[in-house]
Request: fold
Amino acid sequence: MFNNLTERLESAFKNLKGEARINDLNIANTVKDIRRALIDADVNYKIAKEFTDKIKDKAIGSKVINAISPGQLMVKIVKDELVELMGGEEARFNISGNPTVILIAGLQGSGKTTFSGKLANYLKNQKGKSPLLVAADIYRPAAIDQLMVLGEQIDVPVYSERENKNAVEIAQNAIKEAKSKNKNVVIIDTAGRLAVDEAMMNEVAGIKAAVNPQEILFVVDSMTGQDAVNTAKTFNERLDFTGVVLTKLDGDTRGGAALSIKYTVEKPIKFVSSGEKLDTLDVFYPERMAQRILGMGDITTLVEKAQQQFDEEQAKKLEKKIRKNQFDFQDFYDQLQQIKKMGNLKDLMGMIPGMGKAVKDIDISDDSFKGIEAIISSMTPFERANPDVINLGRKARISKGSGRGVEEVNAFMKQFEQMKQMMKMMNKMPMGRMPGMRR
Reply:
């Protein structure tokens, strides 16, 4: 999302490259470029000016110690201010009710229904909750069907009353259903409109008054920029929501909503979402997002995603095999499947410091592993467990079975052997071991 802003900020910091100290002139030029970058990212001018004024004041009042250059100091100041602008700390998500009632609101097309499914999946798998999804959109029949499909995919029940045209009643009846079925979270997906209107506001406000939710989440399509911020302001005046959800972060968006919405409505961003896959939902951490914006990566989130997918017992077994130089094609295939579960490959690589810029213009899709998977799948179990037995004849059969050329099979096997050699060398080091694996 922030690729363009990241580049513009990096360019602004170059004003201080080679400077021995900070002065009024080089700070003025840098701050001007930062302000322009923010405005181009669809941040409101008033917010951009106030933000850069704070940066200027802090920079001029700072003494540069010997270990830090003016450029490095400016990056730190900008990072700290970005964190503050986006909320400072992770916002608490209240799931203390019995059942916890979560009301989802927003405009049509903002991604409310998909987010409702993602949230149910997150609460079920990450928080151990037993959720019930509620189809309270009485105007769009497809919304009920969509929620039903999502619920089936994640094995979460969906409550609906297709003939009832009273959304308040549906929400109240759903809570009774949740109590009778021992569901401890109720997620109510409400109707959206193409624009804010009075009838829509009255209906959502009526549901709020009737069910007294612990959380009211306003879902924002981040691709709509300042329009999203203005809509959020209007909704907040009527609903007094507890938090914001930014969807479609993988789209062609400049990031203005993420940077402006907390300042404008004084409500925290609680979740961010990208893509259609139901596991692509993340808790919003202002510091991590600031690091991504400044091209610093996000190793913490990357490690957390890995920990969610990698079984500790499997990891220990794998480490033993690597230490004995017994890592085989089946192990490699299994690891690929785990990595794919972590999310979009390009997003994951962008979390590695310095990699975001490198992969910006490279098309890395989830299909990137298909060739390798086809090659390994065309091997017999014996061949997967014993890479050394694969001779020319076997390679020809694997090539035919996978639909890949013999040269591609050879290239993959060569890369696999190089990787094994690298693992072997790492294991000879005193501290050599797979990242994240415990002794």
The mean pLDDT is 80.
